[in-house]
Amino acid sequence: xxxxxxxxxxxxxxxxxxxxATVDAxxxxxxxxxxxxxxxxxxxxxxxxxxxxxxxxxxxxxxxSTLRFNFPYMQAGKPRTDKPAVCLESFGNARNVALDLADxxxxxxxxxxxGGRMSSLYGAEYGDDSGIEGLIxxxxxxxxxxxxxKRASHLESVxxxxxxxxxxxxxxxxxxxxxxxxxxxxxxxxHPLHTGDHGYKILKRTRTSxxxxxxxxxxxxxxxISAA
Length: 228
Prior knowledge:
With 228 residues, this protein is an alpha/beta fold. It has one domain (3-227): Rossmann fold (3-Layer(aba) Sandwich), CATH 3.40.50. 32% of the residues lie in helices and 23% in strands. The chain is built from 6 helices and 8 strands. The protein has helices spanning 50-61, 72-75, 84-102, 114-126, 175-183, 213-227; strands at 11-18, 21-28, 35-40, 64-69, 107-112, 134-138, 161-167, 188-193. It has an 8-stranded mixed β-sheet with strand order 1-2-4-3-5-6-7-8, with helices on both faces. Helix 4 links the parallel strand 5 and strand 6 (134-138). Helix 1 packs across helix 6 (213-227) and helix 3 (84-102) crosses helix 4 (114-126). The chain starts with 10 loop residues before the first strand and ends with a helix.
């Protein structure tokens, strides 16, 4: 069976991310969805980037619907990311949209790089009142330059399950250091994606798995959601 035949048509929409910003969003429904994931983009590319679309479509094939959206700075074409407070407000309003679209199923939150880190701040800020079952980080940006743990200091305040899907070549998350961080979190799981970099580009000559990195990430996410 053609895997693309399993995909439903995505719906493009807008919603008010904040009281001052209306943003574009895309809902990718899954057939018989087991969950809906609010999926935020990284710092440098919007929610329609090919990487984000590949994540969304791979997840849909694993019965996970996704709601992708632009942060206000990206919608406005500004080079600097929004302040965390704006991002958290955006996530909160995206959550309300996703609840309407999810039709009662469990709701998860996450994103690529910057978007994933902002979702973790949302989880840390709102805890059990976040209204989400768990957080999924596609390339959590643990550090920007020399390896350190400063960006992980709030993760211990997250009270829901956390899944880290990180490439073994990700220069923004040295794997041994990231594993140490995850080991200290009671509800966290790390799955290394062999030869993947921060944007999930792989080394074709040395990657041993015949499964694509996007399909692997989606499969692991679906299995993790089922067990959460």
